[in-house]
Amino acid sequence: MDRLGRYGAVAAKARCLWGLRLRAEDYRRMAAARTLPELAGLLRAHPRWGRALEGVDFSDIHRYALEELLRRYHLEEHLRLYPYLNRDDRRFLDAPVLETELSQIMRYLQLARAGRAAEYSYTPSPHLARRSRVNYAALSEATTYDGLIGAVSETGYAAVLRRLKPRAASGGDPGSADAGFPPFTLVEAALFSHHFHALLSLIRARKDPVLRKWLLENVGLEADLQNLAVILRVKRYYPGMEGQYFGYLLPVRRYLTPETLRRLCAAESADAAAAILRETRYRPYFQDRDVQPERLMARIRYEHSLRGIREPSPSVVTPLSLLYLTQIELSNIVHLIECVRYDISPEEALTYVEGI
After folding, report:
1. pTM of the full structure
2. N or C: which terminus of the chain has fewer CB atoms within 10 Å of its end residue's CB?
3. pLDDT at residue 175 is higher than 60
């Protein structure tokens, strides 16, 4: 199959899957569910997400188990698109593998910093195990920062983690509050920085100028969102510690100029930073005073990816856009699961859903 035919097929497959997305009425029914089995039953009746729950007895299912089933299905579904892509483009679609690696490292760190590293456990699916270079068995057994580094030694993250290793990490008390681990936000920013630099190297090697331009714009947008998330989180939760974190802001950008980033870093508070952002291309997203970084990122990414899935020229853009859109859809489901758990009203629950 030639390239155009192959990519026409993957674009058609991606758009078909997007056509099976959750609709506003699906979300309304899920938001009205009062128990987890009731919500899971609604999902099992859905033509796409129901495949994740085939044969599952969820009469007494825990929310973490339900979320893991959905995440695994999303990853498996995504990896089925690999045969349609050439080798270079498959590396772009490794995003869910890399994001799983990052999320598991972050989850491990959250537990480890609380002195609860022994509680961490993760078993990857066969597809993920083949694509990932993280040793999840070793990570599940790790109790120290050195153990974490050893579990990811075959990845590029290892060098980043070594640079962040606190002086007391090798002899810290495993039961202490942070157990010798560096601050969570610092690690997150540094690992994302590494990921973006590696991605940029792949993009700049592409010969197709139109595709390279779209990919660079997409990465620029992702970098903007990541930088905004770091700045707003630090301003809101770690005031006075900007100097420690802002050195890890990504040097990639789309709409945030160096001068705007400088002003954002110098802002006195998260509200002051939001006021500055109302002067930029992101102003429509900062009309509300209380802007949560995660919800902001989902909203912008959704609108951008929606344009990508409708791109008329078949390329890796279409499946990549499907990836982002499905991740947002999965995040919507997880938010609704949380709302059921905490007995949030259907009206309030729907405010956490993007794309309706």
Report:
1. 0.73
2. N
3. no
Residue showing tokens 């010969």: 207
Helix (H, G, I), strand (E, B) or coil at 176: coil
Q: Which of 9, 8, 15, 6 lies closest to 310 in space, CA to CA?
A: 15
Give per-residue pLDDT as tens, 272-324: 888 898 899 888 877 765 556 667 777 888 888 888 888 887 778 888 888 88
Structure tokens at 312: 């008329």
Give the burial string for 87-126 (b: 16+ CB within 10 Å, else e).
Answer: eebbebbbbbbbebbbebbeebbebbbebebeebebebbe
Sign of CA dihedral 228, 229, 233, 238: negative
Token digits of residue 309: 């899935």
Q: Contact 14/308 with Cβ under 8 angstroms? A: no
Residues whose CB falls within 8 Å of the CB of residue 246, separated by 6 or more in sequence, listed in order: 230, 231, 234, 265
For residue 302, give the DSSP letter. Answer: H
- Closest alpha carbon to 319 in 327, 328, 309: 309
SS3 184: helix
DSSP 237-286: HSTT-HHHHGGG--S--SS--HHHHHHHHH-SSHHHHHHHHTTSTTGGGG
Residues contacting 165, CB < 8 A, separation 6+: 145, 149, 182
d(CA 209, CA 136): 38
Measure the CA–CA gap between 14 and 80, rounded to whole angstroms. Answer: 11
